Q: What sequence folds into this?
């Protein structure tokens, strides 16, 4: 699935049922998607470059490995894979990546 901006992606995740956190926390919470900035895509030459988008790593935590939230999230990400199960929090973690262009809908820091 393609998105026009970070804001568009965030609204989609919230509609699915995830709480969206930019960054990481010490403890994982149920039905939460943690986004971390992975890289910037730039175009241009020499010292004159424009950032046209960003790649994010998305880590989602759910209480059930067969959760419909993960099925819906998989349609939004470029790839998704199981990471681990935490005995401490009793949550399953999945991770994937997504590319989001710099659009009119705002960036993560806005």
A:
């Amino acid at each position: 699935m393609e998105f026009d901006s970070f804001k568009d992606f965030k609204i989609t995740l919230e509609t699915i049922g995830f709480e969206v956190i930019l960054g990481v926390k010490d403890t994982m919470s149920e039905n939460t998607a943690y986004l971390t900035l992975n890289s910037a895509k730039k175009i241009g030459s020499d010292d004159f470059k424009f950032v046209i988008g960003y790649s994010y790593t998305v880590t989602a935590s759910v209480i059930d490995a067969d959760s419909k939230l993960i099925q819906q999230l998989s349609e939004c990400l470029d790839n998704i894979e199981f990471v681990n199960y935490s005995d401490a929090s009793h949550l399953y973690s999945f991770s994937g990546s997504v590319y989001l262009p710099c659009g009119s809908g705002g960036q993560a820091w806005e």
Observations:
- Residues 42 and 48 are 10 Å apart (CA to CA).
- DSSP finds two helices and five strands in the chain.
- The mean pLDDT is 89.
- The helical segments are 6-16, 68-74.
